[in-house]
């Protein structure tokens, strides 16, 4: 499912295109488009579901399909409010589905940065189309940013080498929800000083008994400045991370003027042409596995917003990809990538631990 619309172009109708592959991504069949600006499909209890929104950040809606994505039900609003997320990790427990979301408070709607995180819960005893089966936790406001994490390289309104859409001082967005040794953790991207402070994420923890989400700390995180995706590989008791790395986030190499002329969006740390794979056993300390996809010849091209799934011993990943788009953020392609025998890329991190 791929949302297709033009940025800052109200005359372009927002549409979600639906495609299905029966041969693991070799060929694709396209179904009629849907009138949604946002769409994230997922499987739960044998049902094909999709989180959709007619307009971004407006209400939590669910549709379902009984014919493999060819047709869909009318949207059911299960939670009202300024919720939003994109394709990120969810946690399935026997009793419930948990998915952390952005929550936009009204006092911040005029600012670029989102301000809140919230945990959305679906009680699996009920139907996913029944609003009574859905609830959400307390809203965690965006924390104060320590001065030491903000170098002040690209303050708002004073960054001439940035073409447009400055990222502001601090925003956090697009949380992943994971379970680590029985604890539900949330990690989200942090854009700091217009992407100049790369490799930092926010870490939160959720208590399902108290239905309470709490910010814990900022953590070192590969590609934390851009959207990342976590896979919990339960078979190998490991986690896998797809993330973008940046080459010149402070512009110490003097690329700024050429980047501005090219139409590059945001500060130099908003580079998305290197998509990497990492692995971990605690979903916090990451080891590099290798480069998944790259555009070595131009910073305005990108492989980003990864949406991967495990298929046997392989990972198949959908990338939002910019080839000939106006900038590295507003993509013009979806590309499919396959990582064969991905577990062979990891060292044994469990060996030598303090086993009982």
Can you give a write-up of this model?
With 356 residues, this protein is mainly beta. The protein has one helix and 24 strands. It has one helix at residues 256-262; strands at 2-4, 15-20, 29-34, 38-44, 47-53, 60-65, 76-79, 83-84, 91-92, 96-103, 116-123, 134-136, 140-141, 170-180, 183-192, 200-207, 212-220, 229-233, 238-245, 274-280, 287-294, 302-311, 314-322, 333-339. Strands 8, 9, 10, 11, 12 and 13 form a six-stranded antiparallel β-sheet that branches. A four-stranded antiparallel β-sheet has the order 4-5-6-7, with no helix packed on it. A hairpin with a 7-residue loop joins strand 15 and strand 16 (200-207). The longest helix has 7 residues, at 256-262.
Structural class by SSE content: mainly beta
In N-to-C order, the SSE pattern is EEEEEEEEEEEEEEEEEEEHEEEEE
Quote the average pLDDT: 91
The gyration radius over C-alpha positions equals 20 Å
**How does the major sheet shape up?**
6 strands, antiparallel
> What spatial form do the alpha-carbon principal axes imply?
globular
Please state roughly what percent of the residues sit in beta strands, choosing from under 5%, 5-15%, 15-25%, 25-35%, 35-45% or over 45%.
35-45%
The number of strands is 24
Distance between the termini: 45 Å
Q: Regions with pLDDT < 50 over 5+ consecutive residues? A: 108-113
Secondary structure: helix percent: under 10%
Assembly of the depicted chains: single chain
Number of helices: 1
């Amino acid at each position: 499912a791929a949302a297709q619309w033009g940025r800052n172009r109200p005359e372009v109708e927002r549409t979600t295109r639906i495609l299905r592959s029966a041969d693991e991504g070799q060929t694709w069949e396209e179904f009629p488009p849907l009138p949604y600006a946002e769409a994230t499909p997922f499987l739960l209890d044998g049902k094909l579901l999709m989180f959709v929104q007619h307009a971004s950040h407006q209400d939590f809606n669910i549709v379902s399909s009984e014919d493999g994505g060819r047709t869909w039900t009318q949207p059911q609003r299960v939670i009202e409010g300024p919720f939003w997320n994109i394709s990120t990790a969810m946690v399935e427990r026997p009793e419930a589905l948990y998915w952390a979301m952005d929550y936009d408070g009204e006092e911040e709607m005029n600012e670029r940065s989102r301000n809140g995180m919230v945990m959305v819960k679906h009680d699996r005893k009920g139907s996913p189309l029944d609003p009574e089966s859905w609830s959400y936790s307390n809203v965690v406001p965006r924390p104060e940013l320590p001065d030491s994490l903000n170098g002040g390289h690209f303050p708002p309104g004073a960054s001439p080498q940035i073409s447009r859409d400055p990222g502001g001082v601090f925003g956090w967005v697009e949380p992943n929800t994971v379970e680590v040794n029985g604890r539900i953790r949330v990690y989200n991207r942090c854009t700091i000083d217009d992407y100049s402070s790369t490799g930092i994420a926010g870490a939160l923890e959720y208590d399902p008994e108290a239905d309470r989400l709490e910010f814990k700390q900022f953590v070192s995180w590969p590609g934390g400045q851009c959207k990342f995706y976590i896979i919990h590989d339960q078979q190998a008791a490991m986690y896998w991370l797809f993330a973008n790395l940046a080459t010149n986030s402070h512009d110490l190499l003097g690329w700024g003027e050429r980047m501005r002329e090219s139409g590059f969006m945001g500060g130099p740390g908003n580079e998305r042409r290197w998509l990497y794979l990492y692995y971990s056993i605690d979903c916090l300390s990451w080891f590099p596995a290798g480069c998944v996809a790259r555009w070595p010849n131009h910073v305005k091209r990108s492989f980003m917003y990864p949406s991967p799934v495990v298929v046997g011993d392989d990972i198949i990943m959908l990338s939002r990809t910019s080839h000939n788009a106006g900038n590295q953020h507003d993509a013009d392609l979806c590309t499919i990538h396959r990582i064969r025998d991905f577990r062979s890329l990891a060292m044994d991190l469990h060996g030598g631990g303090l086993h009982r």
